[in-house]
Amino acid sequence: MTLLALETSCDETSAAVVRDGRILSSAVSSQIKLHAEYGGVVPELAAREHLRNLIPVAQTALRDADVQTGQLDAVAATQGPGLPLALLVGCKVAQAIAFTLRKPFVGINHHEAHLYSPWISQQPLSPPNGERVVGDRVRGENVGGIFFADFTAFQPNVSLIVSGGHTMLVKVESELKHRVLGSTVDDAAGECFDKTGKLMGLPYPAGPEIDRLAEQGNPKAYDFPRPLLNDPGDDFSFSGLKTSVRYFLRDHPGILDDTQWLRDMCASIQAAIVEVLVKKTIRAAKRNHVRCVTASGGVTCNRTLRRELARACEREGFELRLAEKSLCTDNAAMIGILAERKLLANIAPTSLDEEINPGWVLA
Ligand code: KG4
Ligand code: ZN
Q: Judging by beta carbons within 10 Å of its beta carbon (0-12, 13-18, 19+), is residue 199 exposed, middle or buried?
């Protein structure tokens, strides 16, 4: 089965071609530079950029995969959650393509796609039947292998989805069957990285910059709060940490003038966020009697989070599957992979007149 998938829920315009669990191509056009000027995503601008870029990005994905529209068996797009105007672009374009080709359309929940992205890994596969595989590029990197979703290795897991808009723990009982255990009651972890970074004068999105500066900082230099760390539930809260950083900066004027102090601040803030994420994930995994932990979403790019999750899982005897870095941030490939699984599981396609669902909550 060959699918074209589109993703436009926030500030990445992405298209991918997926065939039989393999990502043949994945094109992502990031709007980060555009929004950096405003210190955050401006919905109207995001939608205009999607309108401008989506067709060229989709053409790139089809060309990279060496696939013609006539070879497509289905078209998928993110239906929600996300910015309404941004979602409209991808969803309506995908429905129009499906209509023209007389093929099924699959509307996907963005978080559900993140949830299964850790099962996609890079494999040096030789293509069957001498078929030409050209789609070994994700995010413009020539990775020299192909990304492949291997659900034969699937096992029940507790999954951490951690991004700019969301932080949640989900129990995934079997493929396509999951239950949300907890989510953030205020800011998401990525938002906490971005907002505390903004307070320190770092460019948007500050997460990757904090990650970089923290490498040479002392994580124990400043003791920031670990919200809800000892709460027995699976919910998160990060706005108190942000407020604490704001007061700390107010009470220590000049601290940011010293590069080492800035690095120490970054390392200390990051340590607080990571400790909460790791401890609560491990606790949820133990309580739910699973043997596997997975993580995905933009913040899963964070090196300290990856390292600390790996350490904790090794210590506690859990198998850990982290989404590949290139698939952590928003991308259409994960949308296509999930859409294909749904069609293979005989889940009915989405109607062509179905609306976007900007507030679609993962159950
Ligand atoms: O999944 P994503 O691309 O978009 C959303 O669905 O939100 O995640 C973007 C978020 C931003 O908050 C960004 O700061 C954060 O992921 N992020 C990071 C890192 N790379 C991206 N946070 C911490 N460390 C990183 N290396
Ligand atoms: Zn996302």
A: middle
C-alpha angle 344-12-348 in degrees, rounded to nearest 5: 20
192 with 299: CB under 8 angstroms?
A: no
Reading the block at residue 153, the tokens are: 């290795």
- CA 210 to centroid of ligand 1, rounded, Å: 11
258: nearest Cα among 218, 226, 225, 206: 218
In whole angstroms, give the CA distance from residue 228 to residue 137.
Answer: 40
Which residue reads 């429905």 in tokens?
95
pLDDT exceeding 70 applies to what percent of the chain?
94
Q: Ligand 1: which residues within 6 Å by Cβ?
A: 10, 163-165, 190, 193-194, 205, 207-208, 211, 297-299, 301-302, 329-330
Nearest of 280, 270, 301 to residue 236 by alpha carbon: 280
Of 123, 174, 95, 20, the C-alpha closest to 351 is: 95
Local structure of residue 187 (DSSP, 8 states): -
Mutate to test the pocket of ligand 1, among 238, 301, 308, 322 (most ligand atoms within 8 A of CB): 301
For position 253, what pLDDT does the model report? Answer: 87
H/E segment holding residue 23: strand 22-30
CA nearest 198: which of 258, 264, 260, 245? 245
Question: Which atom belonging to ligand 1 lies closest to the Cα atom of 330?
Answer: 3
Give the residue from 11, 104, 49, 67 showing the smallest Cα distance to 331: 11
pLDDT at 40 over 80: yes
Q: Is the pTM of this model over 0.85?
A: yes
Q: What is the pLDDT of residues 58-84, one digit of tens each?
A: 999 999 999 999 999 999 999 999 999
Q: How far apart are CA 78 and CA 358, in angstroms?
A: 10
34 CA from centroid of ligand 1 (Å): 16
Rounded distance, CA 113 to CA 118, Å?
Answer: 10
